[in-house]
């Protein structure tokens, strides 16, 4: 734990009852055995696919169609050509990024995660709100934009979406601010290639870069948005990315961070062994949960920090770049 770690919530408390500590040790022990960890990952993946198909998301069919792109091959050759065009050969990948995420051994660096990320989001977000089913994902994005509409003093004209993935957060941003110039940044060229194909008519600047070092112009943006990105980062990376966001923003510009809310009932009461189990698919979740995000923002040049709950288990953190 470093100086940016907040006081432990009940999920990490030293006062954790013995039974929870034992359960955590058992889960940690089981996950350190590779075949068991792989079994847990496959099980998690199958559950997500099952849930998706039960709420009307045609996971397998949608992915098959995306891979083929109206060709009669199972994988359209254009994908590889476009990947080569979108890849910035100068981009370097931090070690923490080149690990397995979300039950994919290749993490974010492959076609399978890139083709499945959208259907996975519909599945994972289906149960956030009562009775939304596959529209839960859309509703989560809407609640974020309601917060932005309410708290930002002006509609932003220039926006960077850090960790834009296949463009779901970027397109929601464009619908909210149709006049704005929007740049989507991601480290996975696979995700960006899918974003650019899926949203080929949108006027978005897709950039393959680390959010820590985007090489975008300084003091040029009204809003830097991170939607569901921080829980995928070690704390040191979060701090570097906040510094980069501060560099990108005009004085008085805003950073907006939407992610899981560690203070929400669902997470603050989560038994620690479940958190450990989640680590098999989200390697930096414990670092995210223990980050003192207000302190991290203050230290990197932000003020007027607000946290607003926008779902039963998510929060939006808003802060202003100091002048
Ligand atoms: C959970 S996804 C968020 C997706 C997207 N914002 C959305 O709303 O659907 C996190 C994204 O952050 C990207 N990412 C993680 N670390 C990054 C970094 N250091 N620089 C740029 N992108 C990064 C991942 O490649 C992934 O696409």
Question: pLDDT below 50 for ≥5 consecutive residues: which ranges?
Answer: 7-15
Strand content: 15-25%
CATH architecture: 3-Layer(aba) Sandwich
Bound molecules: S-adenosylmethionine
Radius of gyration: 19 Å
* Spatial shape: globular
Order of helices and strands: HHHHHHEHEHEEHEHHHHEE
- What share of residues is helical? 40-55%
Intertermini distance: 31 Å
In total, the number of strands is: 7
- Find the CATH topology: Rossmann fold
> What is the mean predicted local confidence, pLDDT?
90
- CATH class category: Alpha Beta
CATH superfamily: Vaccinia Virus protein VP39
**Total count of domains:** 1
- Note the quaternary state here: single chain
Structural class: alpha/beta
Strand sequence of the main sheet, in spatial order?
Answer: 3-2-1-4-5-7-6
Number of helices: 13
Query: What profile does the largest beta sheet have?
Result: 7 strands, mixed
Characteristics of this structure?
323 residues; alpha/beta; globular; Rossmann fold; binds S-adenosylmethionine
